Amino acid sequence: MNVISQETPPVLSIEKLTLALPALADRAHAVEGVTLAIAPGETLCVVGESGSGKSMIAHAVMGLLPKAVKPAGGAIRLAGRDLLSLDEPAMQDVRGREIGMIFQEPMTSLNPVMRVADQIIETFEAHGLHGASERRARAVALLTEVGLPDPPRLAKAYPHELSGGQRQRVMIAMALALEPKLLIADEPTTALDVTTQAQILKLLDNLRHKHGTAVLFITHDMGVVAEIADRIAVLEKGVLVEEGTADQVLGAPRHAYTQKLLAAVPSLVPPMRPALPESPPVLSVEGLGKIYRKRSFFGTAREVRAAEDISFSLVRGETLGLVGESGSGKSTVGRCCLRLIEPNSGRIVLSGQGSGDLVLSDLGPTALRQHRKRIQMVFQDPFASLNPRQTVGRIISDGPVAHGVARVTALMKARELLELVGLSANAVDRYPHEFSGGQRQRIGIARALALEPDVLVADEAVSALDVSVQAQILSLIKDIQSRLGLAILFVTHDLRVAAQICDRIAVMQRGRIVETGPTAALFAAPQHEYTRQLLAAVPGGGRFGH
Amino acid sequence: MNFLKRFCRNRGAVLGLVILLAVVAFALLAPSLYPSSPWRMVGRPFMAPFALERFPLGTDTLGRDIAAGMVHGARVSLMIGVVSTIVSLLIGVPLGAIAGYAGGFVDDALMRFTEFFQTIPSFALAIVLVAILQPQLGSIVLAIGVVSWPPVARLVRGEVLSLRTREYVQAAVTIGQSTPRIIFSQVLPNTVAPIIVMGSLMIGSAILLESALSFLGLGDPNLMSWGYMVGAGRTRLLDAWWISFFPGFAIFLTVLALNLAGEGLNDALNPRLARGRE
C-alpha cells in the first residue's frame, strides 16, 4: 500500500455531512456529521452493515439521492468546489467527467439493447468530447485496458453475451472513460463469484495506481476491505465511529463496533471438531442428475447439465457443505434433494431411526407430500421466504396442520420453537415485516423444525445477512444440530462460513463434485486445482486467515 | 389509519369517492324519494328543467319525471356494474390462478382460450349474447361478465407467475401443503391489491357497457336505466336537450368518479409506486 503525504490537497472532502430521512423513517438522519477526505490515488473504504448509510454517502456525492432524502447540512467538496450547491446541469457535467461510478449489479447497470462500445461512446457524447472515429478508438482502448479478451470483437457484443465479471469490467471502463479524479465503487464485487471478485479488485487497484484516481469504495465485506483499502472509515447507523489507515483499523481497532465487526468475520481455519460416532446414513444420494432443457420451436433444444452424477451421504448430526460458484449447480442439488426440482436421474434415500428406508425419488405426488416433512429447507432470502400476509404463528404451524395436527396444538408447539430459536413466544401474533433479517431467518428455521425433520437443507441460509447476524445464526444452527441431532446439507458460496460450520465439504464445479473431504483436511491440503483456486481467491485471506 | 391517509393524499380520489357516495345514497333512497314507478306519466311532456318545482329536471317525451328516472337508474347502473364485475372476477381469478400456478400445457391452453375471447370485439359479443338470451337483468349481467373477464385472468396469471417462484411458496411446498391450499392461502391473498384496483375500474366500464346496451334498446324493459333514457331522448336532442343530457352526465360523473377512486386505491395499496410518481 502506498503512503500518501498528508499535505496534498484532498480530491474529495466531505465535511460534517448530514442527510435527513423522511419523517416516518426509523431514524432522523441517514448519515450524521460525517467528515471524510480522500487524497489523489488513495482508496478509502467505507464499511458498515446494511442500513448504516454507507451507500447514501456515495449517492450524495454523485447527486443521486432518492427524492425523500435531503442534505441537511455540511458540504461535499470535490477539488475545492461544493457539490451540494451545484444545480442539475452543472452536476451532470461533473458526473462522468470528474466522478465515475461503478454499481453493484453488473446485470442491470448496462443497457441490454445497446452494444458495449456504444455505451462507452455515449459517455463521450454526453460531454461532447472527440470526433466519431476517435470515440470508437478510445472505447476499444479502454476495453483493452480493463483486461477484456479480444476487445475489437467484444466492443460489438451485447451485454447478455458477457459474463458477470466481464460486464463489471465494462462498467469500470465506462467509469474511467473521461479519466475522472474520483471513482466511486458501491459494492462493485458483491454480486460476483470469489475468483472473479479477486480479479476485479486487482484490476481496480492497478488502474488507480496507473492513473492516480482516488477511489471511494463502499462495501460490507471486511475481507474485501483488507484486500484493497489504504484507509478505512467505519459507519454505524449513520455515524462515523472510526477512521484510520487499514493497518490501524484492521490490526488495532479502537471502537467497540469495529471490534465486533472484525470478530464476526468467520475464520478460514476450521475449528477442531469431535469425530461423529459411526452410524448409518440418514440421507444418501446416488447418481443424481438434472438437465435443464430450454423449450424451443425450431431446431434442437438447448441443454444445461446443472447436476451430473452427484453422490453423497449424510449421517445423523453431520453437516455437509456443498460449495461452489454461481452456476456450479449446488442450489439445484439442494433443491433436488427435496424434490422442489425434479431430478432427471438418480436415487434419493431417506432412512430415519426405526422408520426404514424411504426412496424419496420414487414417490408419487400424494405419498411425496406425506413424507416431505422428513426433509426440510431453510431459504436464502429472509425477506422473501415468509408470507407477508400471515402471522408468524400461522407460518410456523401451517406445516404440522398440513400433516393433520390440530391448529391449537401446532400453535403451542410454535411458541416452544420460537423460544428454541431465540425469539420470544409472543411473536406468534406478529407479522414478518415487524422483524429484522436475522430474526426472520430464525423464524424460517423454526418453520423447518416444526415438522421434526431428519435432514435440513440450508440454501445460502446466511448469505443475505450482515456478518454479526450471520455469526449468531451460524451458532444457532450448530446449537440446534447438537440438540436435535439433525443432518444438515449446507449449500453456500462462502468458504469462510463453510469452514466454520461443516464437518465435510463437497466442492462443485459445472454440475459435478470435484472434491470431497473432511473440512480441516480439505482446507489444509486441497487436492483439486479448482479447490485451490477457490481458496486462494477468498478476500482478505492473508489477514483473516490465521 | 395509514391506508386512509395515503388514499386521502390523492385529492382526485377523495372527490371521486364523494361523488360515488352521493350516487350510492341516491340509489339507496330511490324508493323513498320517488315511491311511484319512474315509468308513470306524471306531467305534460317536454317540460324544461326548473319550469315547474315538481319536476326539477323536466319531463321527457311521454311526460315522465326525469329526476325519478335518474334516481331509479342509479340503482340499475350501480347494481349491474357491481354484479357483472363480480361475475367477471369469478371467472377471471380462478382461470388466471390455475394458468399461472400450473404452467406448461394448462397455462398454454387456458391462455389461448382467453385470447379467443380477447380477439372477439367485446361489445359485439355482448350484443349477440343479450339478443340470444332475451334482454333481462340476468342476461345483461352475464353478457357483461363474459366479455370483461379476460383482462382479469391475464392480470392474475401474471401476478401468480411471479409469486409462485417466491421462497415462501416453495416453503409451503416443502412443508407438504396441498396445491389448492397453497393457491388459496399463500398466493391469492397477495394478489388482492391489484385485483381490487382493477375491479373498481371495471365497474366503470361495466356501467358504460350497460348504458350502451340499453341505448340500443337491449336493456331490461322493466328497469329504468340511464342508457335507456339517453337513447329515448336522442331524437329530440336539439329541442329537448335535457332528456338526454342529465342521464348522460350522470353516466359520465359516475364512471369518472370510479376511475378517480380506483386510481386512489391503486396509490394507497401500492405506496411505493405512488411515491415514485411525485
From TrEMBL, chain A:
**GO MF annotation terms:** ATP binding; ATP hydrolysis activity
Q: Which organism is it from?
A: Bosea psychrotolerans
Q: Where in the cell?
A: Cell inner membrane
**Membrane protein topology class:** Peripheral membrane protein
Question: SMART domains from the entry?
Answer: AAA
Kindly state which keywords UniProt assigns to this record, in alphabetical order.
ATP-binding, Nucleotide-binding, Transport
Give the principal location in a single coarse category. membrane
Supply one GO BP term.
peptide transport
Name of the protein in question: Peptide/nickel transport system ATP-binding protein
Q: Does the keyword S-adenosyl-L-methionine apply?
A: no
Q: Which SUPFAM superfamilies match?
A: P-loop containing nucleoside triphosphate hydrolases (SSF52540)
TrEMBL record, chain B:
Task: Kindly list the biological process annotations in GO that this record carries.
Answer: peptide transport; protein transport; transmembrane transport
Where found in the cell? Cell membrane
Report the PROSITE patterns cross-referenced here: ABC_TM1
Primary localization class, coarse? membrane
Q: Name one Pfam family in it.
A: BPD_transp_1
Q: Does the keyword Cytoplasm apply?
A: no
Q: Which residues form the ABC transmembrane type-1 domain?
A: 74-262
Q: Which residues cross the membrane?
A: 12-34, 78-102, 123-149, 195-219, 240-261
Homology family: Belongs to the binding-protein-dependent transport system permease family.
Q: What is this protein called?
A: Peptide/nickel transport system permease protein
From which organism does this entry originate? Answer: Bosea psychrotolerans
